């Protein structure tokens, strides 16, 4: 049995101090959100208790209904928020309060600019949570006991938010958490029944648990000595928002609900609310956030949909409700067909879940389609934040591939800015007469793509090319062989074939050049040896002397290499431009000089891919030899001669 311990003092993580300071300053103008955040945490704690009780009924120590209480004390100048949820052990308090365990904290803090307005938005992206208490309090006391632990293992945490906190073990008969806010000077207007009730209704009406406040006339502050037992009333509506009819719910309510489920500070971009009746009965209330969470790309990144069964929170999604490529979706799915004690294992093989998931996915895709059509500015925001994630769906979700393909946006050679603004449908609508394929170019960066020699013939003929530079784009093009019956074709892979876009005279000239330069091509091939799979003439270049393309059957290896970021195809083919003055004079060069030329042409072609030359020193040496020869200067003087 543990006995109350001496108070111990601990330091906050350095990041917490920085974050707190920033939060107090940048969120002050919106200070009432502290109550929303603390009520939201209390509600989560009760949800977690309910879930834990499913496997450990012993956690239910009392038959008191699950609820949240808010009260204030005018004399002591405090506001108290308490819940009878899961509570925290001493270790959990240390891990959760005073530490920021969230991945991405450092990156977040680096992104801060010092400009208060901008930083306030950033802080919102991070989720303000418990620390928002310090906006209005200069001392916060949290007492808590974890459900299932003995009363002697209560914990008291206290801090003035300036860098240290005190911790002690205390006796606490009731499980759950109580937070007492000792208000800063000048915050007394919050010590008001009407004011607090208004804040609760404004931000927390959607919380499905009752939020109780003592009745006004029992409040000692008012000095009424009625002698009645203190009464309490439920301040919020206390019904699950998603279970109410759509017509009754305003945008503001949806938005506050979103902030609660998503732990977000900003409004969502869009939402869908649907009651499904048929084989299975379930409700979807799903949101598209306006910005990406910090952990979007981290393997442990949390999925954002919460499963409820008949309004009772069951668990956070771990991939059963939303596929990975929609991991940014936040919200609630409530089923009437699953048992309350459903386990993760049951979820994994449940027909009900499969059916809910497939219809939820279709609805989210439809929501995105509507957003793209009706609110293109919002869709552009969505695409900027989540486009690269949605693209994974092309490879991941075969059955919805066409719908996802319609949602893709690209930068192309015809885009006026770097912003991806072209859909595949836009591209197809702009295709030239006789054009049969959708052309794309993959490069490690957009800058490398835009300046790539592979685009020369396409620019000359005014043919649009999609410019792809996301690492995930490799998956997109390998998983999406065609769109609207048009094949997707890399402009840097296989022999140049413009089909009907090339006239007979051009084809003939190309063939003729191939025959004329056959001997040169052989010599170049010999000089380059293993570095290239082949050398050939091409008509794809108009201004560059040479370029590297990938062989046609090269996709798999190419993909792996590109994923490693090298940008080089696994079996490179050097193509030369027969019209280029440099190429024309090569035939006359000696074998030794030709070898320099071959390597320099190869090296520069590697560079224009945005890739790295394997032996940069050798490349530079050969280039210098050629430059010296061209300027007609004598070579370096040999000291010994
Ligand atoms: N009333 C509570 N009961 C039990 N645990 C709590 C309570 N309040 C906070 N916690 C714990 O402390 C953690 C940190 O809370 P905090 O509000 O800072 O962040 P969060 O709720 O996880 O996320 P966000 O900051 O995005 O809202 C919570 O995740 C939870 O584990």
From TrEMBL:
Region of interest (C), ranges: 562-641
SMART domains: HATPase_c
Matches recorded under InterPro entries: HATPase_C_sf, HATPase_dom, Heat_shock_protein_90_CS, HSP90_C, Hsp90_fam, Hsp90_N, Ribosomal_Su5_D2-typ_SF
Keywords linked to the UniProt accession: ATP-binding, Chaperone, Cytoplasm, Nucleotide-binding, Stress response
Domain spans labelled Histidine kinase/HSP90-like ATPase: 30-187
Compartments where found: Cytoplasm
Short name of one Pfam family: HSP90
Chain intervals for the UniProt region annotation (A): 1-344
Quaternary structure annotation from Swiss-Prot or TrEMBL: Homodimer.
Function text: Molecular chaperone. Has ATPase activity.
Family assignment from sequence similarity: Belongs to the heat shock protein 90 family.
Name the UniProt record assigns to this protein: Chaperone protein HtpG
Lineage: Bacteria, Bacillati, Actinomycetota, Actinomycetes, Streptosporangiales
């Amino acid at each position: 049995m543990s006995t109350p311990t001496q108070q111990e003092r601990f330091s906050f993580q350095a990041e917490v101090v920085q974050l707190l300071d920033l939060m107090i300053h940048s969120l002050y103008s919106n200070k009432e959100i502290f109550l929303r955040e603390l009520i939201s945490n209390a509600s989560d704690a009760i949800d977690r208790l309910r879930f834990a009780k499913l496997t450990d009924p012993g956690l239910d120590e009392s038959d008191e209904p699950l609820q949240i209480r808010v009260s204030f004390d005018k004399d002591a100048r405090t506001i108290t928020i308490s819940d009878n949820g899961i509570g925290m052990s001493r270790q959990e308090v240390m891990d959760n309060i005073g530490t920021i365990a969230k991945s991405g904290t450092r990156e977040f803090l680096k992104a801060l600019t010092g400009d208060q307005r901008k930083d306030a938005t950033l802080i919102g992206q991070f989720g303000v949570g418990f620390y928002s208490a310090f906006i209005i309090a200069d001392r916060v006391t949290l007492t808590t006991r974890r459900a299932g632990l003995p009363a002697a293992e209560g914990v008291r945490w206290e801090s003035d938010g300036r860098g240290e906190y005190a911790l002690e073990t205390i006796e606490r008969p009731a499980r759950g958490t109580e937070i007492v806010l000792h208000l800063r000077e000048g915050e007394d207007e919050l010590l008001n029944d009407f004011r607090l009730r208004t804040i609760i209704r404004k931000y927390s009406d959607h919380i499905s648990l009752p939020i109780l406040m003592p009745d006004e006339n029992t409040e000692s502050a008012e000095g009424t000595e009625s002698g009645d037992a203190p009464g309490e009333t439920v301040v919020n509506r206390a019904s699950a928002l998603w279970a109410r009819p759509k017509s009754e719910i305003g945008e503001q309510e949806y938005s506050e609900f979103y902030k609660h489920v998503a732990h977000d500070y900003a409004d969502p971009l869009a939402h869908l609310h649907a009651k499904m009746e048929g084989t299975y009965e379930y409700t979807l209330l799903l949101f598209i956030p306006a910005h990406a969470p910090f952990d979007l790309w981290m393997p442990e990144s949390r999925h954002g949909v919460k499963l409820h069964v008949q309004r009772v929170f069951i668990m956070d999604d771990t991939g059963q409700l939303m596929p990975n490529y929609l991991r940014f979706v936040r919200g609630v799915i409530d089923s009437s067909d699953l048992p309350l004690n459903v386990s993760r294992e049951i979820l994994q093989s449940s027909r009900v879940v499969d059916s809910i998931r497939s219809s939820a996915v279709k609805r989210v895709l439809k929501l995105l389609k509507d957003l793209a059509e009706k609110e293109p500015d919002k869709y552009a925001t969505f695409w900027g934040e989540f486009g690269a994630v949605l693209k994974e769906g092309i490879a991941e979700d075969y059955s919805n591939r066409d719908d996802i393909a319609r949602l893709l946006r690209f930068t192309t050679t015809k885009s006026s800015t770097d912003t991806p603004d072209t859909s595949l449908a836009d591209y197809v609508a702009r295709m030239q007469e006789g054009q049969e394929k959708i052309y794309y170019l993959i490069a490690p960066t957009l800058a490398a793509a835009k300046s790539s020699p592979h685009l020369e013939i396409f620019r000359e003929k005014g043919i649009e090319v999609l410019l792809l530079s996301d690492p995930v784009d490799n998956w997109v093009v390998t998983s999406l062989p065609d769109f609207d019956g048009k094949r997707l074709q890399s402009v840097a892979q296989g022999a140049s074939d413009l089909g009907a876009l090339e006239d007979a005279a051009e084809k003939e000239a190309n063939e003729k050049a191939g025959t004329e330069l056959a001997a040169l091509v052989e010599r170049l091939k010999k000089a380059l040896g293993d570095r290239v799979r082949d050398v050939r003439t091409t008509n794809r270049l108009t201004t560059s002397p040479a370029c590297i393309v990938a062989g046609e059957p090269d996709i798999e290896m190419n993909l792996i290499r590109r994923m490693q970021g090298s940008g080089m195809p696994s079996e490179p083919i050097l193509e030369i431009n027969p019209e280029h003055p440099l190429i024309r004079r090569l035939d006359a060069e000696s074998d030794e000089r030709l070898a320099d030329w071959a390597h320099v042409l190869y090296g520069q072609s590697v560079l224009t891919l945005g890739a790295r030359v394997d032996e940069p020193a050798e490349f530079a040496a050969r280039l210098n030899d050629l430059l010296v020869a061209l300027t007609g200067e004598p070579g370096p003087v040999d000291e010994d001669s």
